[in-house]
Every structure is written in C-alpha cells, then in structure tokens.
Specification:
It is a single chain. By secondary structure, this protein is of the alpha/beta class. The protein folds into 2 domains: 2-67, Arc Repressor Mutant, subunit A (Orthogonal Bundle); 74-280, Rossmann fold (3-Layer(aba) Sandwich). Helix content is 39%, strand content 22%. Helix 7 (138-146) links the parallel strand 4 (132-135) and strand 5.
C-alpha cells in the first residue's frame, strides 16, 4: 500500500511539473484514477517534503539533502528528534478537539506537530472544523495559514533560538478557551510546595511569556514526548499557573511509575482547583 501511494505521489509531481496553469482538483483525481480526497492527502504529503528539502546533491559518492530549515537553535535541534512520537501525540491532541474552538498554540517541536496535524485535518476536510488558532510559533503559523485555518499571532519580539515570538508584557484581545503547550521538561509532583506539576522552558523569556499566556486560559493541554518527563530547567512556567484549570497531559507512553505519580498528583491538585487528566496515546497504524 505504501509503495503504491509513493508511486502515485511521484506520478502526481510529474503531472503537475508539466502543467503551466492551475489544475482543477477533480480533474486531477480523474487523471490519477483516485478520489479528490486522496489527491488532497497526496498534495499535503508533497508539501511537507518540499517545505523541508531544497534539493538533493551528490558529492564524492555521497547523497545528501540540502534542507529548507529554520534558524539554528533549540527548535531546529528538536525538530527531527522522535518525530513518530510527536506525530502520535499530535494526532491524539487533534482527535480530542471540538469544532469552533479558539486555541492558543505555543512554540516548540511538539506543538508544531500539532499545527501540522491541524493542517492535515483542514486539507482533508476532516474534524475539527472552524478552529481559530493564535500562535507565537512562526513555523506553526505558516502551517496553519497554508491550510486556510483562521490564525493569528501571539507575541511581538522574534527569537531565532525558538523560531517564535515573545513579549515581556503580553496583551491581547484574543480570548482562547484552550491552550496547547509543550515543555522542555516536566516534573510530576516531586515537590512539596504549591506547584506540584512543574513545566519547564529552556529559556527565561519564554517561561515568563507562557505564564502570561496561560493565566487567562481555563483549559490546557500539555503535549510532551516521554523523554521530557523527569527533566527540569531553571525556568518553570507551570506550577501555580495551572491552578484552578482543567489540565490534560498527553504523551506517547507512560511507565507504571509515571501513571502512579500522575494518579497521586491528580488527587493532590484537587485542593488547588485543578482537574488533571492524562493519556498515553496509541501509536498510529499508518
């Protein structure tokens, strides 16, 4: 099945390369002997490849790709790590979204995977519909705009380290009902203070910005791959920022010990008005 899909996408590229005018989607589907939804999905896959690859070079008997990357830094370093896990997490996040949500999507490689999944759903005309997504991530913003998702910008000052916008004093008329955040580290109830669920950023500026963004959002999804669990940085944006909110943590896998810690943490957070749930998402079959 995969080989057939790859061959079809190559045929589609060759067909489009020969065309000088925009092509009707249904006509393309007829030419490819498949339905329009399949062509939409193929185009989306090709867009992802073309977005990240400038060309292919052969040098001294070695083949290498010249990439269309973002600014060197933390985000770029994380982008190609554990991509399957991040894709599984993103699919679980988007599958749980309702239609017509107003969402704040923060920067990071896992939230970026969520933006890619929202784009895929929009291209295929699948659930969820009519989202409004504001983000401080430039890569995520490009994904959303490309798919025609209603999108806006959070933040003002660009950081090449994160490929994202931050601001020392956050003000916005946008009132999201849900925030989707990543973290470079997560500690599960290891402290004795009022924090209990600690989310960390690798940068002080980002942590300060995220605290402001999360302060007015009633529901938060924490999307993190399992390698971030148990890690910490000096800059915490979780803790009391999560009090009085509905919080759901989604990872691709959780150990028995982590499940036990989260179960205990859920009971302890009730005293702070926090409704914590958690999920180890299923690995995608395709």
């Amino acid at each position: 099945m995969s080989e057939h899909a790859d061959a079809r996408r190559m045929q589609l590229m060759e067909l489009l390369a020969q065309c000088e005018e925009p092509q009707d989607l249904d006509s393309l589907a007829d030419s490819m002997r498949c339905d329009a939804r399949t062509v939409r999905r193929d185009i989306d896959q090709l867009q992802q490849l073309l977005h990240r690859v400038n060309g292919i070079e052969l040098r001294r008997g070695k083949v290498q790709v010249s990439r269309a990357g973002y600014s060197p830094g933390y985000f770029t370093d994380q982008l190609d790590r554990r991509t399957s896990a991040k894709r599984d997490i993103a699919r679980a996040v988007v599958a749980g979204l309702h239609d017509e949500l107003a969402i704040a999507l923060t920067a990071g490689s896992t939230p970026y995977a969520v933006a890619c999944e929202i784009r895929r759903a929009a291209v295929e005309g699948a659930h969820p519909h009519n989202l409004i997504v504001f983000t401080n991530s430039i890569p995520s913003l490009l994904e959303l705009v490309t798919a025609g998702v209603s999108a806006g910008v959070l933040g003002e000052i660009y950081s090449p380290e994160d490929c994202a916008l931050h601001t020392p004093e956050y003000r916005s008329a946008f009132q999201p009902s849900l925030a989707i955040v990543g973290a470079s580290g997560v500690l599960l109830g290891t402290g004795t203070g009022p924090g209990l669920l600690d989310l960390f950023s690798h940068r002080a500026e980002e942590a300060a910005f995220l605290k402001q963004v999360l302060s007015a959002v009633p529901e938060i999804i924490v999307a993190v791959d399992s390698t971030k669990l148990g890690k910490r940085h000096p800059w915490n944006f979780g803790a009391t920022s999560l009090h009085g909110k509905r919080v759901k943590m989604i990872s691709e896998e959780l150990t028995t010990e982590q499940f036990d810690r989260l179960s205990d943490l859920r009971e302890r957070l009730i005293a702070y008005g926090t409704d914590l749930t958690f999920e180890a998402c299923r690995r995608a079959t395709a």
